Every structure is written in structure tokens, then in C-alpha cells.
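[09:14] KT: can someone run the structure on this one? pasting the chain below
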Amino acid sequence: MVNKKDITGIVLAGGKSSRMGSDKGLLRVNGKMFVEHVIDAMKPLVNDFIIVSNNTEYDQFEYERVEDDIKDSGPLAGLYSGLKHSNSEYNLVLSCDIPMIKTEILKKLIEADYENYEVTQIESNNKTMPLIAIYKKQCMHKCLELLQQGERRLRVAVNQLKTKTISIDSELDPFVKNVNTKEDLKTINHAIEH
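[09:31] RB: done, C-alpha cells below
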């Protein structure tokens, strides 16, 4: 297992959320912003953080913030920018819209033999989650190549890289759920209150 000081945490907070109507990472659940929940879950496992966002509001967290090198090209561009600015070979990459995420789920990635793969990702409910994953820095070359071809889907990149997928137990599924709509946010707030 690689030492934690050799892993950078990258949070993709770039999205203009059309469905939510505001920057998802700055929404609050349980008294904390989404992005804070995500960072807290990653903290025990990484040494350093990069937040990929063009929004200066993320500067309040006092971590390095980098802007998308290639504008308006979705998570693939966000991943590329994060990897490009990272100083470590291994990078734990999460989207900012999974506020229920737990360290124990991320540990499953860290405990896998991720050193033998370019991408090690979580699978929940038979759905792969390329934004709860460890990426080797070298993946940025494939990201850039695809972006230059006009490709914006992260899954296309993951499918072309040497990837390992780790399924999580079904009782952990709720903790990896993306919050995409106001309805989703209500559901999560409701679950926390009860």
C-alpha cells in the first residue's frame, strides 16, 4: 500500500449544475457544505488536496484551487486539470456531489492493489463510479487525447485505461449517491434527520 503522503485528493467541483440551479459543492447538508463532507472523508487517506473549480468561493477552504484548463468540457476536463497539477503519482478523485461519502468506502480503494492499474473505481448497484476512484497521474495523457478529439465523457476514458472495479456492499450504496436535484437533496436531508 502506498504511503498516504504519496496520494493527492482531487475534488471536482467544476460543474455548473443545471439541474440544481447552483454550485453543488457549496450546498449544505447537516450543517456543512457538500465539499467539506467530501474533504473530511478523504482527509485520513491523503496528504494534499486540489479543488478543481473556476469558482473563487472554494478559496475559503485554503486548499490549492485550479481552474479547468479546457473550459466547459465536463468531468473529463476537470480530471485532466486535477491530474496535471498533482505532484503525486496516485490521486484519489471524487466529485463534490456525494456528501454522504464515508472514509471506510474510500479505504476499499486504498486497500485494493491499485498500484497495478491506471484507474481503480468503485461500483455500486452494478453502476461503476469513475468519480470515486484512484487515478494514476499518467491518465492525464489519455484525458487530453480524448478532449482534443471532442470527447467529454469520463467513462470513455476509463474504458480505454487499465481499470479495476471494486464492488461495495449494498448497505453502503446510499453513501455514494450523487445529489443532482433539489429532490435528491430533500431525500438526503430527510434521511439525516431520521
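[09:33] KT: thanks! Strands lie at 7-12, 28-29, 32-33, 48-52, 64-66, 90-95, 119-124, 127-136, 163-167.
[09:34] RB: yep, looked fine to me
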